């Protein structure tokens, strides 16, 4: 017998746009697909490592890896959907040039070649696999991430490339996109402006979450598009990017890059919040309410449980979190 753990769905499901990349965005999408069929993922396109980096360099295309992960997360939880998920995520293990390539990256590259543009290719592929939502790139051109990093002894160095920034030693002092102020994907901007809710995070803070706020058209759409904004915090600091950060530091970091950002809700797991008052204060300064809920998976990993996260989003979006973990 199948039981819906989230209860009945509303008659008019919300239009939700999730901004991010990598495993963090996948967690968000697997949760949000329980709440609405009107779901769009807007995905960072700055990956320069592994299979994505190789295809980006060889074919001159947007890096497909984070887009692939978003498509896989939107596959139906049915035998057919799970087969598509596994196919997209399969990696070759060979002694030849296909080694470590993700099959889904090659499929996306082929879809783009056939369709003639990234958006049409992704839309066609999403229809083919029965994805429960739409996947769009955040920018119309491949991006590079560049960071100023402070290391032991106060030495400042410049680290270039998402794959390097994500694992850098030291503390990230500043991050920027190259080219600066890149053109946004028009369909992504339109989706944000039409949304009821925009969801930021979780994910690598400086390389998956922050970049969306560094694309001017996308940032402006978040500010004045009329959507409410939800921020999902990570479950721990990330070695390299945010080592030593508290939960509140993550919120403050966003506000430093985007002083005009306003939040409606921030979802956090209480197991990582050392100082609830500090986090609540940082959230309130951005106009939001803090919702503390158990959203961590039970397997001991720093991973969000999709059903727990979906329940937290449902209540946060409806403003019905009441006394179950909300800080007032």
Automatic annotation (TrEMBL):
NCBIfam families noted in UniProt: CofD_related
UniProtKB keywords: Cytoplasm
Name listed for the protein in its UniProt record: Putative gluconeogenesis factor
GO cellular component annotations of the record: cytoplasm
Annotated GO MF terms: LPPG:FO 2-phospho-L-lactate transferase activity
Taxonomic path: Bacteria, Bacillati, Actinomycetota, Actinomycetes, Micrococcales
Subcellular location: Cytoplasm
InterPro entries: CofD, CofD-like_dom_sf, Gluconeogen_factor
Function: Required for morphogenesis under gluconeogenic growth conditions.
Main subcellular localisation: cytoplasm
Protein origin, superkingdom: Bacteria
Record-linked Pfam families: CofD
Biological process annotations from GO: regulation of cell shape
Family: Belongs to the gluconeogenesis factor family.
């Amino acid at each position: 017998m199948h039981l819906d753990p989230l209860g009945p769905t509303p008659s008019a499901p919300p239009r939700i746009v999730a901004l991010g990349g990598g495993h963090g965005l996948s967690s968000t999408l697997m949760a949000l697909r329980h709440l609405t069929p009107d779901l769009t993922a807007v995905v960072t396109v700055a990956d320069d490592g592994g299979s994505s980096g190789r295809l980006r360099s060889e074919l001159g295309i947007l890096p497909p890896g984070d887009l692939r992960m978003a498509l896989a997360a939107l596959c139906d939880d049915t035998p057919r959907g799970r087969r598509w998920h596994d196919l997209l995520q399969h990696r070759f293990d060979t002694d030849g040039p296909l080694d470590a390539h993700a099959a889904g990256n090659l499929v996306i590259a082929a879809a783009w070649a056939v369709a003639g543009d990234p958006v049409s290719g992704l839309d066609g592929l999403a229809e083919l696999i029965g994805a429960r939502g739409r996947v769009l790139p955040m920018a119309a051109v491949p991006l590079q991430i560049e960071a100023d990093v402070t290391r032991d002894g106060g030495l400042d160095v410049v680290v270039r490339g998402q794959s390097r920034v994500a694992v850098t030693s030291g503390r990230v002092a500043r991050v920027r996109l190259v080219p600066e102020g890149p053109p946004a994907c028009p369909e992504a901007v339109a989706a944000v402006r039409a949304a009821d809710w925009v969801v930021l995070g979780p994910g690598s803070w400086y390389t998956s979450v922050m970049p969306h706020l560094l694309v001017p058209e996308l940032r402006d759409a978040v500010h004045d598009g009329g959507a409410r904004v939800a921020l999902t915090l990570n479950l721990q600091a990330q070695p390299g990017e945010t080592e030593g950060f508290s939960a509140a530091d993550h919120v403050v970091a966003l506000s430093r890059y985007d002083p005009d950002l306003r939040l409606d809700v921030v979802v956090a797991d209480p197991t990582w919040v050392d100082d609830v008052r500090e986090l609540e204060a940082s959230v309130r300064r951005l106009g939001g309410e803090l919702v503390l809920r158990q959203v961590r998976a039970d397997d001991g990993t720093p991973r969000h449980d999709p059903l727990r996260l979906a329940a937290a989003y449902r209540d946060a979006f409806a403003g019905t979190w009441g006394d179950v973990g909300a800080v007032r």
